[in-house]
């Protein structure tokens, strides 16, 4: 998935260009993350943890809570450990913005990001919908990216959605390196219920 850093509206800085390249789906990525969600209406905070492994060709292996999502580029497995259930479908049937590589891509391409602060280690960029960019309308009210200046990786992503819910991602040990092909295949556990939608 190729996209331009902050579309046509924000500051296309060298650092943002490097971030866009790192997250355009053409580079292998491994990272772990913490996600803190504050639900505005329920006034409840929820904290979850996970890992993400990405490779070119829509290959990914994501663990999050009791779930695991795996793709070899053609077949997509959704495993719920709590339900002991595997849903199998094709990658082509998935909305591309819902792919793991699309998480960062949509914020880089749909929001007019502007540099808000900088020190020797990180640079903070902020964007919001409604500043002349219609593609961002309805997605989120505010987006804040904290970028590592050294390797152009995203260390934090903060999003306020259109309902006022707040999602704060913290990414750890992000590395851009080759992956073992075996992590992009999935064998359903013995006894798991299998729903094949291909």
How is this structure best described in words?
The structure is a single chain. With 198 residues, the protein is mostly beta strands. It has one domain (14-196): Lipoprotein localisation LolA/LolB/LppX (outer membrane lipoprotein receptor (LolB), chain A), CATH 2.50.20. 10% of the residues lie in helices and 45% in strands. Strands 7-8-9-10-11-1-2-3-4-5-6-12 form a 12-stranded mixed sheet, covered by helices on one side. The longest helix has 11 residues, at 100-110. It is globular and about 50 Å long. Residues 1-10 and 131-137 have low confidence and may be disordered.
Largest sheet geometry:
12 strands, mixed
What helical percentage do the residues reach?
10-25%
According to CATH, the homologous superfamily is Lipoprotein localisation LolA/LolB/LppX
Classify the fold: give the CATH topology.
Answer: outer membrane lipoprotein receptor (LolB), chain A
Poorly predicted parts: 1-10, 131-137
| β-sheet strand percentage | 35-45%
Q: Which CATH C-level class is it? A: Mainly Beta
* Spatial strand arrangement across the major sheet: 7-8-9-10-11-1-2-3-4-5-6-12
The shape is globular
Q: Termini distance? A: 23 Å
Number of strands: 12
Please specify the SSE layout and strand pairing.
Elements: H1 14-22, E1 29-39, E2 44-55, E3 59-64, E4 67-72, E5 75-80, E6 85-90, H2 100-110, E7 114-118, E8 122-127, E9 140-148, E10 154-161, E11 166-175, E12 193-196
Parallel strand pairs: 6-12
Antiparallel strand pairs: 1-2, 1-11, 2-3, 3-4, 4-5, 5-6, 7-8, 8-9, 9-10, 10-11
